[in-house]
Structure formats: structure tokens, C-alpha cells
Amino acid sequence: MIFLSNCFLILVGLTGVCYCSITTVKETSVKPGESISIPCLYESKYEKHVKYLCKGFYWATCSDVVKTNKPDTSGKFSVQDDKEQKTFTLTINHVESTDSDYWCVVEIDGGADVGEYFRLSVSGTPALSVDNQEIEGFLGENITINCKFQNSGTEKWCKLGGNCVTKLSEFVDGTRVIFKKNDTTYSVTMMGLKQENSGWYWCVKGQFQMPVYLTVTGRPASTLKSVTLMPVTMNVTNVTQPSVKERMDPTVFFISLGLLIFIVLVASFVLFVLKCKKTKKEPATEKTEVGVVYSDVTFKKKKTSEGIAAVSDGNVTYSSVVSFKQQDRRVKQK
To answer: Which range is the signal sequence, renumbered to this chain (predicted)?
Structure first.
């Protein structure tokens, strides 16, 4: 153990770099012409220090290609420092076969810089890859990452600065992780996402790692659901589409509205007049009985010594009595 410690101290002295203060991938694979982002986790004490990417296999001869205080004008390299997560991310665009050996480095004023080596394996068929290095998940929901591989070795899912899981069902950062595997892909499903699950992870297969950045947010209040529309074919000939001005002419709108209001007012007035007339009309009263003469007719028999004799027509008045309803009683006389 003492021998190993001495070797470590000698290595630090010769290279001028300490390998214990920065955590990053060891080796990752990428296609020529594509881009790759590599996260480098550093200690809190380096938060205000300059970070940079150094290109080259040997520490003593590597050259810085981009710094947080010195951007790359060619656009091939970039660096972003997330001080909250204590991680700076190095991005290499348009990868070439010569892009293979790099270092994540923290600059130390007045002392030896701190760095960690990583290697890019540039190949037309990457040994390990994902569809996207940046993914988004929602609070309380699940998310699945598919890790595609062409090599052999043990599968893992690791949190940068945290633990790794290898079994079918384990926990990373207090979140349950489920593994599923087939011949060329193994999927990782994180269950019940929490805010603290945001950050850098990586797929591991054998000696290769592929970084993936997960952002966990709340789902928007109104999320549009995807709707599949069936295609409709229409044959339209010689149809002139009205212009926006014709469809939205305010003069036509106000004229139509005025006519409608006028018709409603006239109809309301007519209904009001008819209602008033009906209210003022009095019901039929009983007709007076002026001009009506009632006569009592009494029939008497004249007795003679010879019995009842016929009455002379000259002394008899004939009356006709007609019965009517009470409201219109009339007596006709002949």
C-alpha cells in the first residue's frame, strides 16, 4: 500500500496534474462528423477557477483549445461552467479521427493545474451510443433511456458523482431504476422522477461510457395531445379565396348589425301596441231591456145560460210570447 502511494505521488510530481479532483468518463465512442459533450465534475473549492479543455495524449505536451475565459473562435470547441452543479461541460463539434485524446482541466494560479484524461473512440459504428445526449423528464413521471451497444461487457447506469446500478431493479439518488436488455440495446427506466434527479448520467458497457444529461421539470398545465388527422383530397377549380380585407370589412359588419337592431325594435313596438289594445278592450255587457213591454195574458171563460159560448173576435187581443236568454229578452207582438 505504501508503494502504491509513493507511485501516485511520483506520478503527480512528474505530470503536474492530480487525478483525484475531477471526475469524468474514461472512454466514449462517437461517429466522425458528429458532436459529443463530456461533463467534468470538480470540487467546490474550484468553483471560481478557470476551466479548460486540453488536447493531447501527454499532459506535458497537451495544448489548451478552449477556456472559460478564452472561447474558441473556430466554433469546434466550447466549454460551459455550471457552478451550481459544480460541473463544466466540454463540447467537441465535427469530430475527426485525430480527435482522440483530451483532458478536463482546472487552472490553478501559482500551482499545478488539476486535470483528468478521457479518450474519444472515433468509429463509423460506435461501440456505445444514445439517441440524444440531452433528455427531459417530468416530476413524478417515468423516463426511459435506450443505450445501444456493439461491444461486450457489464451494463451499468451511473450518476455523475453518485453511484452505479447493475441489477434489474436498484436505486440511484433515491429513485428506482429498472433494467431491460436485448441483443443490441439495454433500456434504463427511472421511476417517479424528482427535482434532484436532474444532472449528468452515463450508460456503461464494458470500457465505454456515454454521457446523458437529464432535466426534470414540472409538466405544463395544458399539454396538447397529439392528434392524427386523416388526409383529405379535394378538387377545387376556379375558386377565388376572399382576401382578409373582404372577410373582415367593418363597414359591412356595422350595417348588418344596424339593420338587425332596427328589425328587433320594430317588432318589439308592434307587439307592444297589440298588447295595449287587447288590455283596453272591455268585455261585452248585458244589453238593456229598454223598449221591452211585458204583458200578462189571462184567459177567462164566459158563462152563459147555455154553457160556455164562443168569444167574439172583436173583443179579443192576441199576443205572441217568445222566450229569450236573460241578457237579451224580447217580446214580439202581432
So the answer is: 1-20
Query: From the CB of residue 331, how many other CB atoms can be counted at a distance below 10 Å?
Result: 14
Dihedral (CA of 94, 116, 65, 81) sign:
positive
10 Å CB burial of residue 201 (0-12, 13-18, 19+) is buried
| Residues forming CATH 2.60.40.10 domain(s) in the chain | 14-122, 128-217
pLDDT value at residue 243: 46
- Residues 274-291 have a mean pLDDT of 59
Between CA 17 and CA 114 the distance in angstroms is 5
Q: Is the pLDDT of residue 224 over 50?
A: no
The residues, ordered by sequence, that sit 6+ positions from 291 with a Cβ below 8 Å of its Cβ are: none
* 278 vs 15: which has the higher pLDDT: 278
The rounded mean pLDDT for the chain is: 79
CB of 84 within 8 A of CB of 196?
A: no
Can you read off the three cell numbers belonging to residue 245? Answer: 380585407
- For domain 14-122, which CATH number applies: 2.40.100.10, 2.60.40.10, 3.40.640.10, 2.70.70.10? 2.60.40.10
- Helix (H) / strand (E) element for 29: namely strand 27-30
CB-based contact 197:182 (threshold 8 Å) = no
Amino acid found at 232? V
Would you state the torsion angle of the CA atoms of residues 152, 156, 162, 163, taken in this order, to the nearest 10 degrees?
A: -110
CATH of 128-217, one of 2.30.30.110, 3.30.870.10, 2.60.40.10, 1.10.238.10: 2.60.40.10
Q: Which amino acid is at 113?
A: D
Give, as one character, the DSSP assignment of residue 70. Answer: B
Give how far Cα 218 sits from Cα of 46, 163, 215, Å: 31, 25, 10
